[in-house]
Design brief:
The complex is a heterodimer of chains A (404) and B (183). By secondary structure, chain A is α+β, with helices and mostly antiparallel strands. Chain A has two domains: 213 residues, no CATH class; 129 residues, Sandwich (Immunoglobulin-like), CATH 2.60.40.10. Helix content of chain A is 21%, strand content 34%. Chain A has seven helices and 20 strands. Chain A has a four-stranded antiparallel β-sheet with strand order 3-4-5-6. Chain A has a four-stranded antiparallel β-sheet with strand order 7-8-9-10, with no helix packed on it. About 17% of the residues of chain A have low confidence. Chain B has 183 residues and is mainly α. Chain B folds into two domains: 76 residues, Rna Polymerase Sigma Factor, Chain: A; 87 residues, Winged helix-like DNA-binding domain superfamily/Winged helix DNA-binding domain (Arc Repressor Mutant, subunit A, Orthogonal Bundle), CATH 1.10.10. Chain B contains ten helices and no strands. The longest helix of chain B has 27 residues. Chain B is globular, with a radius of gyration of 20 Å. The N and C termini of chain B lie far apart (69 Å). Classes of the chains: A alpha+beta (404), B mainly alpha (183). Chains A and B meet through helix 1, helix 2 and helix 7 of A and helix 1, helix 2, helix 3, helix 5 and helix 6 of B.
Chain lengths: 404, 183
């Protein structure tokens, strides 16, 4: 296929295409790029000021007042924006929600003291009103109402994790949820308190919202050992070319209506880098032995992780149906953590159909399977962060002639 | 673990950050030297001029935001190219265009082409994103297999496979065009 003549033809054809395309495109000037950056920074400064205040004085949020919430909230934010962002001690103190305007679930249902807070499974699939994910996001991220789907589910608004925690020393256990939606490149996440209401559930308080241009995104939540919720924060939502390793990260503890940055080591935090590889070590008649290795390349222990597989149609895990990658990977193993610097090795047998049974597209393009490793944060009550996604999958190709 | 400045310190650092004039000129020269080539590569990949221009502008904007760091890299244009291609890949994935390309490809293999003229841009649009990306980076950007593998975070063998298949798919489409033109 790849003769020298082919190479010359390709080079000439692409050279011509490149030349004509370069004449055709109309890129902005360097000055326009500078203006774009200045506008973005100006926006970030404004939003950072608001976000800083918002972190210090998280707005209490009540769904039952949704009809009046927008009218009420916007002027309040406008006042905060015009206030002194370096305000004194008084303005920096977290403000308690106004009790008189908050719905009291206890008084409405009379059952909250005994009913356990909702779990992740309780909330997946539920429709409930949520606070907005930000300006101009309503189309992509509907919130009135939103149906919460699991991370791999259909639908724009994902329930990422639910933990149970007391937010004040003597308060009841409450369900705190990390919810996300992706209207563009990056996900917008918010942390909400969700409680039972009537036959369903309601978001009754917003602890944190990351919007585009904001200064912090919550990557995970966990209950604190005593009381309160730990928020794992990154300076921005990792996206596209952003490497998590390059982002500033820290942990805050939300208690009693306000959050405080924690310094020093925080126990029960799993921030590390898992890497997976897969090697075919033996071939039988219609089968291959594949050694899958997971290495913990980070400096900390890894939490519980899962190994997954997906493949093209003529390859499958022995005894299983083949799992098309467009459907998402199928979970094969769950491993209870891995020490820093340690490796985990497992051997799988996969079945490969005879080449003559491959579909035409398979014969033209070969068959492949992909092994992935994930450290799902919603499996444990701890902060979990995988710092490098690029080495979380291994791909093995069975070439067009059936070799591997 | 890194520490974090107070919000006030962040505001100060943003508001006073001004690159020196020489750095400005450096960026301008860098931009002028590379923007058209990168945009044309993204145009070949996305098939949409405005989108390609936006993606490359965004990549250069990010480079400008951290120009003091990027200019020190051994190959700053590789950084911008990678950002632009990652943005393009994310955008295509979001829009489900990949699936549409795959569907078109399957249709093409299951049924004979119907005689429409197939030029290089259309042929590119008909192959899978990874294959398309590989041939554009190889033949338009002039990258080696090693450089493509590095940019894409893929094994060199994988890139060779993309190139092999991409060229085969393109050749098939271009041959069809040649044959029809000769008739």
């Amino acid at each position: 296929m790849s003769t020298p003549e082919d190479e010359i033809r390709f080079a000439e054809a692409f050279n011509e295409l490149g030349e004509s395309a370069e004449l055709m495109v109309e890129p902005p000037t360097a000055a326009a790029i500078r203006s774009k950056l200045r506008r973005r920074r100006a926006t970030r400064v404004t939003v950072a000021a608001v976000a800083a205040l918002a972190l210090l004085a998280p707005a209490s949020w009540a769904l039952q007042q949704a009809a009046t919430a927008e009218e009420r909230d916007e002027p309040v934010i406008a006042e905060e924006r015009t206030g002194d962002p370096t305000g004194g001690e008084e303005s920096a103190k977290p403000q308690e929600p106004t009790p008189s305007t908050e719905p009291s679930l206890e008084t409405e249902t009379g059952t909250s003291e005994t009913a356990p807070p909702p779990s992740f499974d309780d909330l997946v699939g539920q429709e409930l009103e949520l606070p907005s994910f930000g300006d101009s996001t309503e189309l992509a991220c509907p919130t009135g109402p939103a149906q919460l789907t699991a991370a791999d589910g259909e639908g724009p608004v994902h329930l990422i994790k639910v933990v149970h925690a007391r937010l004040s020393e003597d308060g009841p256990q409450r369900a705190v949820a990390l919810v996300g939606c992706r209207p563009g490149e990056a996900m917008i996440r918010q942390v909400l308190v969700i409680e039972a209401e009537g036959d369903g559930y309601a978001a009754t308080e917003q602890l944190h919202l990351y919007d585009y241009g904001a200064t912090a995104s919550v990557y995970d939540i966990a209950p604190d050992a005593d009381y309160g919720v730990l928020l794992g924060l990154l300076e921005e939502e990792p996206c596209c070319s952003t490497q998590i390793q390059d982002l500033d990260r820290w942990i805050e503890r939300y208690r009693d209506g306000g959050s405080q940055k924690l310094t020093g080591d925080v126990p029960g935090v799993f921030i590390t880098d898992l890497a997976v590889s897969a090697e075919v070590v033996a071939s039988g008649e219609g089968t291959r032995e594949v050694v899958v290795t997971v290495a913990n390349l980070g400096e900390n222990d890894a939490a519980q992780f899962t190994l997954n597989i997906c493949s093209t149609e003529s390859i499958r895990l022995q005894g299983e149906d083949s799992r098309d990658c467009s459907e998402g990977p199928a979970q094969v193993e769950t491993v209870d953590g891995l020490g820093a610097g340690d490796s985990y090795e497992t051997t799988w047998t996969i079945e490969v159909d005879p080449r003559e049974e491959w579909p035409e597209s398979g014969r033209a393009y070969g068959q492949e399977f992909i092994v992935g490793v994930q450290m799902p944060s919603n499996l444990i009550d701890a902060l979990v962060l995988e710092t490098d996604w690029e080495n979380n999958r291994a791909q093995r190709l069975f070439d067009y002639d059936g070799t591997d | 673990m890194m520490t974090r400045d107070s919000p006030d310190a962040i505001l100060d650092s943003v508001s006073v950050e001004q690159p020196p004039l020489r750095a400005n000129q450096e960026f301008d020269d860098f931009y002028a030297a590379n923007v058209r080539a990168l945009t044309s590569q993204l145009l070949a990949y996305t098939g949409n001029k405005a989108e390609a221009e936006d993606l490359v502008a965004e990549a250069f904007c990010r480079a400008l935001a951290r120009w003091r760091q990027v200019r020190e890299y051994q190959n700053p244009v590789a950084w911008v190219r990678r950002v632009a291609w990652n943005l393009a890949t994310s955008q295509l994935r979001r829009r489900g265009v990949i699936q549409r390309f795959l569907n078109r490809q399957r249709e093409t293999h299951e049924t004979a082409p119907d005689g429409d003229r197939v030029d290089l841009m259309r042929a590119l649009a008909g192959i899978t994103p990874n294959h398309r990306k590989a041939v554009i980076l190889r033949y338009m950007a002039g990258l080696t297999v090693t450089e493509i593998a590095e940019q894409e975070g893929a094994a060199e063998a994988t890139v060779r496979s993309w190139l092999f298949r991409g060229k085969a798919a393109l050749a098939a489409r271009l041959t069809i065009q040649d044959e029809r033109e000769q008739r």
